[in-house]
Structures are given as C-alpha cells and as structure tokens.
Amino acid sequence: MGKTTDDILAKIGCKNTKSRKAVIEVLENAENPLSAEDIFLCIKKQGSSVNLSTVYRTLDLMESKSVVNKIVMMDGKARYELTVDGHRHHLVCTNCHKSVPIDFCPLENMEKDIGMRSDFDITGHKIEIYGICPNCKKE
C-alpha cells in the first residue's frame, strides 16, 4: 500500500484514533478479507484494547467512505478489505470459503458503456465469482 494509516484517515476526514489506526493496520497486513471478529482478535493479539462494537462502527464508517470493501461470503459472514488503491473483485471457493482477489476489473469498460447508454451515474460495482478452488478440487 502506498498510503499510511494517517493518510487514509485524513482522506476520509476522520479523527485519527488508536482504534481506527489498528483496524486499518490489520487490514493492510491481511492477505485475504477478514471478518470484524478476525480483525478484533488480531488487534487484541497485538496487545491493544478495542471493543468489537468499535471495530464494526469503524468498518461501517470506512465502507461508507469507500476505503473498505465489504464482501458477504456464501457462509453469510461479512469480510472486509482495504480498497484505497482501487476496488477488487474475488473468486470465492464454495467449499472452503477461500477468497482470491482478481487482479483486474472485468467490468471497467462495460460500466462506462452502461452508464452512457442508461444515463445512470454509476458509482461502483462488486463482483464475486463462486466456484471450487484448486486445493478443494484435489480432495
């Protein structure tokens, strides 16, 4: 990531608190999207004190500012990832629920075309493609 936690919080116009910084730092270091509970446990493991409700409020705020992407998996559990460097789409395994980011946006040109044809101001989109990952196929 090219931006620091301070940069991210300044970008969204939010007060720089220990809890917000901790949530961002956990997400910055995450290889995959994390649930609020996972983020909470990571912060506690690092020795910081934060309430789970604070983690949820922070994630809701960051999602509303388009800094965090909320992904609801097939297991019904919401997971979060930072999107300060642009949005991402995912391949999601229906067996183990592993999420793999797609490194390009397959709808980028289509989104512009749809917006022009419909006179609709498109503000974003999400794609989750479901299937069986290579590890689960081996089993």
From TrEMBL:
<dbReference type="InterPro" id="IPR043135">
    <property type="entry name" value="Fur_C"/>
</dbReference>
<keyword id="KW-0479">Metal-binding</keyword>
<dbReference type="GO" id="GO:0045892">
    <property type="term" value="P:negative regulation of DNA-templated transcription"/>
</dbReference>
<keyword id="KW-0862">Zinc</keyword>
<feature type="binding site">
    <location>
        <position position="125"/>
    </location>
    <ligand>
        <name>Fe cation</name>
    </ligand>
</feature>
<feature type="binding site">
    <location>
        <position position="133"/>
    </location>
    <ligand>
        <name>Zn(2+)</name>
    </ligand>
</feature>
<dbReference type="GO" id="GO:0008270">
    <property type="term" value="F:zinc ion binding"/>
</dbReference>
<feature type="binding site">
    <location>
        <position position="108"/>
    </location>
    <ligand>
        <name>Fe cation</name>
    </ligand>
</feature>
<feature type="binding site">
    <location>
        <position position="96"/>
    </location>
    <ligand>
        <name>Zn(2+)</name>
    </ligand>
</feature>
<dbReference type="GO" id="GO:0003700">
    <property type="term" value="F:DNA-binding transcription factor activity"/>
</dbReference>
<keyword id="KW-0238">DNA-binding</keyword>
<dbReference type="InterPro" id="IPR036390">
    <property type="entry name" value="WH_DNA-bd_sf"/>
</dbReference>
<keyword id="KW-0804">Transcription</keyword>
<dbReference type="InterPro" id="IPR002481">
    <property type="entry name" value="FUR"/>
</dbReference>
<keyword id="KW-0678">Repressor</keyword>
<comment type="similarity">
    <text>Belongs to the Fur family.</text>
</comment>
<protein>
    <submittedName>
        <fullName>Fur family ferric uptake transcriptional regulator</fullName>
    </submittedName>
</protein>
<dbReference type="GO" id="GO:1900376">
    <property type="term" value="P:regulation of secondary metabolite biosynthetic process"/>
</dbReference>
<dbReference type="Pfam" id="PF01475">
    <property type="entry name" value="FUR"/>
</dbReference>
<feature type="binding site">
    <location>
        <position position="93"/>
    </location>
    <ligand>
        <name>Zn(2+)</name>
    </ligand>
</feature>
<feature type="binding site">
    <location>
        <position position="136"/>
    </location>
    <ligand>
        <name>Zn(2+)</name>
    </ligand>
</feature>
<feature type="binding site">
    <location>
        <position position="87"/>
    </location>
    <ligand>
        <name>Fe cation</name>
    </ligand>
</feature>
<dbReference type="GO" id="GO:0000976">
    <property type="term" value="F:transcription cis-regulatory region binding"/>
</dbReference>
<keyword id="KW-0805">Transcription regulation</keyword>
<keyword id="KW-0408">Iron</keyword>
<dbReference type="InterPro" id="IPR036388">
    <property type="entry name" value="WH-like_DNA-bd_sf"/>
</dbReference>
